[in-house]
């Protein structure tokens, strides 16, 4: 017997003797094999059971396009415009990585500008936060001194 095969067989026998294979899920139940030869029967069975996420099997470009379509929901959950910019930069980097990996693909995911994401975030949060009623203007007071003109910055550093 081949030494590698003997090593594996002895490891299996030791594990069975310890009881490592007792009480496994599906123990004693027959496999649900298809009638015809299908090398991917176990994947198809997992898909039918729902134990494998079907989204994970899609190409990256399709996942990126779906993420781009649902960007409004993602932006609504982000805490700040800076986070929206960072998210857009990360998304665009993933788009460019996919384009570098697959230069001849016909379907492309759109890149996303950071400032566009920040503007969308501001618009979404402006809609979500109710505006407070504008306070009434203060009553007219006695005329005060006229407002001072702006100080010029170049005079601040000069002396004399």
SSE class: mainly alpha
Query: Would you list the SSEs in sequence order as H and E?
Result: HHHHHH
Helix content: 40-55%
What's the shape?
elongated
Radius of gyration: 33 Å
Q: What is the first-to-last residue Cα distance?
A: 101 Å
Alpha plus pi helix count = 6
Number of strands: 0
Low-confidence stretches: none
Integer average pLDDT:
83
Largest sheet: none
Share of residues in strands = under 5%
Structure, explained:
This protein has 6 helices and no strands. It has 160 residues and is mostly helical. Helix 5 (81-101) packs across helix 6. The longest helix has 21 residues, at 81-101. The radius of gyration is 33 Å and the shape is elongated. It starts with a helix and ends in a 32-residue tail after the last helix. The mean pLDDT is 83.
Summary tags:
160 residues; 6 helices
Brief overview:
It contains six helices and no strands. Helices cover 49% and strands 0% of the residues. α5 crosses α6 (114-128).
Layout of helices and strands:
Blueprint: H1 3-18, H2 41-49, H3 60-69, H4 71-77, H5 81-101, H6 114-128
Helix pairs in contact: 5-6
């Amino acid at each position: 017997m081949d030494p590698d095969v003997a090593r594996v067989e002895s490891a299996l026998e030791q594990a069975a003797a310890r009881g490592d294979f007792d009480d496994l899920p599906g123990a004693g139940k027959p496999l649900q094999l298809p009638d015809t030869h299908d090398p991917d029967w176990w994947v198809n069975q997992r898909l039918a059971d729902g134990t494998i996420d079907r989204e994970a099997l899609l190409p990256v470009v399709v996942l990126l396009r779906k993420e781009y379509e649902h960007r409004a929901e993602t932006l609504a959950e982000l805490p700040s415009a800076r986070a929206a910019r960072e998210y857009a930069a990360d998304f665009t980097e993933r788009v460019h990585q996919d384009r570098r990996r697959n230069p001849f693909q016909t379907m492309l995911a759109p890149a996303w500008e950071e400032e566009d994401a920040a503007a969308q975030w501001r618009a979404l949060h402006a809609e979500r936060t109710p505006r407070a009623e504008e306070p009434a203007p203060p009553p007219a007071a006695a005329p005060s001194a006229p407002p001072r003109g702006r100080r010029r910055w170049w005079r601040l550093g000069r002396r004399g």
